[in-house]
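Comment thread on ticket #2218

A.B. wrote:
> Attaching the input chain for the structure job we discussed in standup.
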Amino acid sequence: MGEVVRLQIQNQEHKLTIKEYQGQRVVTFKEIDEVHERPEGTAKRNFRKNRNKFIENEDFFELDQPDEIRSLGFERPQGGTPEKVILITESGYLMLVKSFTDDLAWQVQRQLVNNYFRVKEVKSKPKTDLKSIELEARLKNARAREANILLKIADKPEVPTEFKQVLYSHASQIIAGHPLLPLPETEKTYTAEEIAKELGISANMVGRIANKHGIKTPEYGIYVWDKSPHSPKQVQAWRYNEAGRERIKELCTKTKEGDSCC
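C.D. wrote:
> Ran it. Output below, let me know if you need it in another format.
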């Protein structure tokens, strides 16, 4: 039996036998399902569904030679055509589990990346680099916490669907270092301050006009999450789309002509 890595996840120990192929550490679909506590076949299904996104010999290896498969400790059925074995690299693993957004998934990803995939890199570095390795590990943990904050915001029921997609995209980029999920297409929006500056009035006046005439509806804009100017908390803020901007301008024009817009 090969060397074993012990992962501590939610106070439970998971043993993972180290497997290396062409100088890289790899895992199987079954191992991914087990450490993530997912039904057997989940990782394989995700792989098949997105097969065209994975690059062979970079994100995964496909083995069909009996000697190679046996050397890695896999048992093959007797007789018949041998079944191929798929081995997943670190990049392939991160792509496979990008749809796993629960708290356990983030813990498992951090444990596998830091304690399994990249341990070999750490062992090969001289002792003089240990400080930089420690700093890098702290940075990765900080990024994981940052991504988790975004996911918790996205899980709130009041968050619009468009903003959920933005949060998921940014969270995946923080963890993987590059975008894994596309950003949704969005139209240009304007803050009350931007419209106020254009019209030569105050932002409070823009808000009073919008409230009086019922402009804060999906037809004229959307609520987004933004940082509060008075605290580190995230708060909802209204942004006007082009139709909302034009409606505010129209109402203000009527005011100048003698009508009351607010």
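A.B. wrote:
> Thanks. Noting for the ticket: The chain has a mean pLDDT of 81.
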